[in-house]
Amino acid sequence: MSQGELVDGRWPVVIDAEAAYEAIRSINHRTIWLSHGLPAPAVYWVLAELKSALGSSAQQALEQLGRGLAQSLDHYDVYEDDGRDPSASVEAAGAALRAAADLAGQIGPLLDTAQLAIARQGYRSLSERIGES
């Protein structure tokens, strides 16, 4: 990625990561004070989207970030501010990214299991249930 591809002085991939953070943050805010809970059909659809974003897509992104970091050593004049060998830092980061990618790969199947467990649930509001009596 060249300097010419920057958007407002930032790499587009950084902007995308910020958007992903904001999306998860929004879910956190929308679900923190659910005084009436969140019925299974809503959770089902949230899980469907999170399964894609946090599962295989996150795994792929982490793997690609690791490869991109390693490839940067061949295309940029990379240095450490303390004089250490940058390839050692890149190797350590790559190992951590591979481990994170492996963990991300476990998220999708777990969210799929949760989604399947509630797939047949419906709901009525409490007032609808009381009206039945």
Key phrases:
single chain, 133 residues, mainly alpha, 2 domains, 0% strand
3D architecture notes:
The protein is an all-alpha fold. The protein has 2 domains: 1-33; 39-126. Helix content is 73%, strand content 0%. It has 4 helices and no strands. Helix 2 runs antiparallel to helix 3. The longest helix is centred in the middle third of the chain and has 36 residues, at 40-75. The chain is elongated and about 75 Å long.
Summarize the structure.
The chain has 133 residues and is mainly α.
Strand tally is 0
The helix/strand class is mainly alpha
Rg over C-alpha atoms, rounded to the nearest angstrom: 21 Å
Topology as H/E string?
HHHH
Please write out the topology.
Blueprint: H1 12-32, H2 40-75, H3 86-118, H4 126-132
Helix pairs in contact: 2-3
